[in-house]
Structure formats: structure tokens, C-alpha cells
Amino acid sequence: MAARPDAFSDLLSTRIEGDELVMSIRGRWLVTGPRPSWAKVRGDQWPVQIRPVVDGLETWDSSLLLFFMEVHSWCRTTGARFEQRDLPPRMCQLLAQLEEVEPESIPQDRGEDPLSAVGLAAADAVVKVRGISSFVGECVLSAFRVARSPRLFRWRDCLGEMQQCGAMALPIVSLISFLVGVTLAYTGAIVLRQFGGDIWVADLVGLGMVREMGAMMTGIVLAGRTGAAFAAILGNMKMNEEIDALETLGVSPVDFLVLPRLVALGLMMPLLTLYASALGILGGISVALGVLSIPPAAFWVEMLSLVDLSDTVVGVIKGITFGLIVGLSGCLRGLQSERSAAGVGKAATSAVVTAILLIIVADAVYAVIFNILGL
Asked: Residue 143, Cα to own-chain centre: how many angstroms?
């Protein structure tokens, strides 16, 4: 009984002897010529033992060894036995060397159990939430210590960070906010002009910028600009063992490095939010004047008929929260950074992703809370 393709009859032939498949190897086995596939040679047979026999082999090189390795790999997978007692000693020696170079590894089903995946993901989420909660707790305790002893606070560092995250961020915040206002006005004009409600563009832009987009876009911009910078700076300090030196001297890294940055963002984010809202409204006014022929005075009066102080307070509260989120995310990822250049880069990326995710979650939570409160 044979199990070989006719195309390779000059290289090998097979026969079944009970549960054993005997392969007769002959001809010229060269890497420059064709080599049979074990799957086609075996066919639909599942032998318990495979025994190659050299019979009329003229010349051979690594092509024959690779074929034997393919057969040997199949035997490891199925549990069959590869019997090589009839092979020349030199060939057996080379096969043994190949097995040492490529250690024995039985292919396994690498598909992860769904329950195990869910359990590991839940455990990882618990560890991450616990780390965030612990860090937030340390920051709260540090704030209480500074409140009791204000002279311990590093005001010079805080002022420097306020300049970096506040005044230095004005250009990018101005551009983004103005364009967001323009986009809102154009989008509203497409729908409202069909119903003759052009003037309501003022309500759409004003309410959208003051309550949502002003704080949201400012938070996202600072997450990519300031949050990543915080993570990179603290990660670099950790890599250079500067944070370890502070702890050795008895100085808390949270008091010395984190709290000034949190205070700076907490103070500057409300101002940047108001500034972003004003620039967004200015963008809406420009579109209303240029496209809808609505005078700025009419735009302003209509906007004030809907937007009041409560909407501004909502935007400011969101701005403060988003600023603290950006600062906490950047500092946390920086302190958790690995001690390598790649680790610093990963920390900066993780800080941006974490901040944006938490900003969106916080905005959704605020939307529910303010709706319940009627604000």
C-alpha cells in the first residue's frame, strides 16, 4: 500500500507494515530540486510509527534533513514514533544537532479560555483602579499637609508650571477653539436654514461652547500637550534615579513634584475654558456674519437669551475637573514609568490616553448629574 505522489517516485516510496509506515529513500535530494511534502506523502494515513530506510540514495544535502524534520515535527504533534535506526550515522548526528538548535515544541492550542481572559482582564482592571485610587489618596493627603503648612508648598515651581500650561498654551487653544466654533456654526446652519431659524445658530454655538466644547477641547489639548510633558519629565527623572534620591532624603515626590503641577492645572484650566468658550463664540459670530448675514449684536442678544450664568458655572466646573484629570494622569504615568527611554515614551502615550478617556467619562457623568439637578 503506497501513500506517495507519483511526482516524487524517484525520491521515495512508502509501504505499510502493520501500524508502521516504511519510507524508502533514494535518488538525489538537493535543495536546488523539488522536495516532497510530508502531508502529501502521508495522505490519509495515521501511522503509529514511521521508519525511513535508505535504499539507493545517490546524494543528499539539507533538503533531506528538512524533510525528516517535517516528519519528526508531525510525530511530536500526533504522538507517533520516528524510528531512525536504519539511517546512516552521519545523518542521525545531523538530525540530532538540528533538534538541539530548534528545541522540541509541541504546537498547542493557544486560544485563551474566555473565562480566563475575563478573569485576567478584571484582575488587571482592579490593580489599575487600586493604583489610581492610591495615588489620588496620596495627592489628597499632600494637599491637606500643604493647607496646614503653606510655607512647604513650592510656589515658584507652581508659577512656572502655570506659565507653561496656561500662557504658553494660549496659541493652540485659541486656534482649536475658534475652529470648533466655526464648525458648530456651519453644522447648525446646514439644518437651521431649512426651517428659517438662522438666528438659532447663536443658541447652538453659545450653549455648545460654554457647557461642553470649551472645557472638552481645552482638556484634550492639554492632555496631549501638558499631560504628556508631565509624564515625560517625571519618567525621565525616575530613569535618572532623581525620584529615588528625593525619597532617600525624606522628601515626598508627591509634595515636591506632583502637587505644584496639579495646582497649576487646577488654576489655569478654568481660565483657559472661559477663554476657549469666548474664542468659540467669536468663531460662531464670524460664520453667522459671513454666511447667514446675522449682525454680531443680534447674535449676542439671541445667545444671552438662552445662555446664562449657570451654563458658565457648569463649564468652569468641568474645566477644573478636566485639569485635575490631566495633571493626575500625567504625573501618575510618569511615576509608574519604566527606567528606560522606551518606558518614558510609553508613559507619555499612556498619560494622553488615560487623560482623554477619563475626561470623556467625567463629561458623561457630569451630563447625568447636571440633568438630574436641572442645571
From this structure: 31
8 A C-beta contact, residue 51 and residue 22: yes
Q: Do the strands 12-17 and 20-29 form a parallel or antiparallel pair, or are they unpaired?
A: antiparallel
pLDDT tens for 156-172 read 888 888 888 888 889 99
What's the longest Cα–Cα distance across the chain?
Answer: 102
Q: What 3-state class would DSSP assign to 21?
A: strand
In the chain, list all ranges with CATH 3.30.750.24: 6-101
Q: Are 315 and 273 in contact (CB under 8 A)?
A: yes
Number of Cα atoms under 13 Å in the Cβ half of residue 122: 6
Q: Is the dihedral of CA 216, 220, 221, 227 positive or negative?
A: positive
Q: Which cell numbers in the block locate residue 176?
A: 482649536
pLDDT for 199-245, tens place per residue? 888 888 999 999 888 999 999 999 988 889 999 989 888 888 888 88
Pick the CATH number of 6-101 from 3.30.750.24, 2.60.40.10, 3.30.1310.20, 3.40.630.30: 3.30.750.24
**What whole-number distance in Å separates Cα of residue 359 and Cα of residue 160?**
25
- CA gap 163, 229 in Å, rounded: 14
Please give the Cα distance from 228 to 134 (Å, whole number).
21
Cβ count within 10 A of residue 77: 12
What is the per-residue DSSP string for 212-281?
A: IIHHHHHHHHHIIIIIHHHHHHHHHHHHTTHHHHHHHTT--HIIIIIHHHHHHHHHHHHHHHHHHHHHHH
Q: Which three cell numbers stand for residue 277?
A: 468658550
Distance CA 62, CA 5 (A): 21
- Which residue type occupies 84? Q
In angstroms, the Cα distances linking 23 to 4, 7, 16, 20, 62 are 10, 15, 9, 10, 18
Please give the Cα distance from 233 to 161 (Å, whole number).
12
E-only strand ranges, the chain: 12-17, 20-29, 49-60, 81-82
Pairing of strands 49-60, 20-29: parallel
> Which residue carries 519604566 as its cell?
338
Q: Are strands 12-17 and 81-82 parallel, antiparallel or unpaired?
A: unpaired
pTM comes to: 0.65
Give 176's contacts (C-beta < 8 A, 6+ positions apart).
217, 221, 276
What helix, strand, coil percent values describe the chain, rounded to 5?
A: 75, 10, 20
